Amino acid sequence: MGLHVTLVNPPYRTRPHQHPPFPPLGLGYLAAVLEKNGFKVEVIDCQASRYTYDDYKREIAKRKPDIIGTTAPTRLYNSAKEILKISKEAHPDAVTMLGGAHVTFWNEKALQECPQLDVVVRKEGEYTLLEIAQRLEAGKDITDVIGTTQRKEDGFAFNPDRPYIENLDELPFPARHLWDIDAIRKQEDMFYLITTRGCTAFCNFCAAVRMFGRRFRMRSPKNVVDELEFLYKTYGAQNYTFCDDAFTVDMERTERLCEELKKRDLPIKWNMGTRVDRVTKELLQKMKDVGCVSMWCGLESGAQQVLNDMHKGISTDQTRRALGWVRELGLKPTPNVLLGYPGETKESALKTIKFAEEVSPDEMAYVNIATPYPGTPMYDEVMKNGWVRNTNFDDYDATRPIFETPTLSMQDLQDLYDY
């Protein structure tokens, strides 16, 4: 019958995220690569199905997986550990795995903290998981699979990183058919895609470069629009979000994507996020002409010194100019603000709030509290300085202070966030 893999999206242990659930693209790509290579795959999405741990316990008991894999950002790390514990109780012989950005930089600690975890998959996981499945099916040892951290008798086996996938077009589209798409669409009728990996910037609060590399890897415009057309024809989907950190870094490629969209003439609307220094008014107009309705971006701060400290690589003038174009063209601006970065003061934070109101007076900015995620330079800085006051990852949701600096107390930061 072949090897059976169950992939799990853990539930929130505390208050759920404000965003409606959608098929996690990471799990979708893992499942698609496994299916393409002949493996049976099932998905248990605890968030989309609103499962509790008891619900998951009943669901996993119905299955007979050889591999149980889960993924988790920092806030879901503790939940993932609970999922792994339940999984091992139900299926002691199954190989359990955990992947994602958090555990990539927490790999040995994760193995120490969770005895039920067998393998940590670091960075991009598609071909690492595939190799593990192929070896297990063939009865071969998996302890030296690259891209993993595993236990060994005298400690841990930290195997070399797996090279990044250079040709993203070779990946199949995410296996969305493994989710109850109709039920998800009742909560939000939106389909999510990602068209790039890696980043050319190195912002101190972000782990993208350490996770996916400094080089910007891109799917071809044809491949991207092929996926859009497939989703439109399969599901009648008309609303899309591109989840790329910086959609327009390569502006020439973005123009070619617009040309491909115009050629296909799909009746769709879409939004994307990018850097304010990687757009022009002409490019925004071309995107609008083929369905773009909104641009979200990292405004981050209205204080230039704070932006410099972040290594954001932009100026407030660039933000003002780019969002001016967005509003002038009738697109919806969605700036993201980051309060409480090390060096922030009450004065600089208030300046940021007023700046957000200036550049986006008709639309609310998304305000986040600076949160030190493992793998980011900011995490290294606040840990080195002993500023962290909360180590419960359940609270790392960017809505509450986690650390305190000499220039801004946690209470003052919370008051500014609630302002």
Give the SSE layout.
Elements (H helix, E strand, L loop, with lengths): L3 E6 L15 H12 L3 E6 L7 H9 L5 E5 L5 H14 L4 E5 L1 H4 L2 H7 L5 E3 L4 H12 L10 E5 L2 E4 L22 H7 L3 E3 L2 E2 L10 H5 L4 E2 L2 H15 L3 E4 L8 H14 L4 E6 L6 H9 L2 E9 L3 H7 L5 H13 L3 E8 L6 H14 L6 E4 L7 H8 L25 H8 L2
Parallel strand pairs: 1-2, 1-3, 3-4, 4-5, 8-11, 11-12, 12-13, 13-14, 14-15
Antiparallel strand pairs: 5-6, 6-7, 9-10
Helix pairs in contact: 1-6, 2-3, 9-10, 10-11
What's a concise summary of this model?
The protein is of the alpha/beta class. 38% of the residues lie in helices and 17% in strands.
What does this structure look like?
The protein has helices spanning 25-36, 53-61, 77-90, 101-104, 107-113, 126-137, 181-187, 208-212, 221-235, 251-264, 281-289, 304-310, 316-328, 346-359, 377-384, 410-417; strands at residues 4-9, 40-45, 67-71, 95-99, 119-121, 148-152, 155-158, 191-193, 196-197, 217-218, 239-242, 269-274, 292-300, 332-339, 366-369. The protein is an alpha/beta fold. Strands 2-1-3-4-5-6-7 form a 7-stranded mixed beta sheet, with helices on both faces. Helix 14 (346-359) links the parallel strand 14 (332-339) and strand 15 (366-369). Helix 1 (25-36) crosses helix 6. The model has no long low-confidence stretch (mean pLDDT 96).
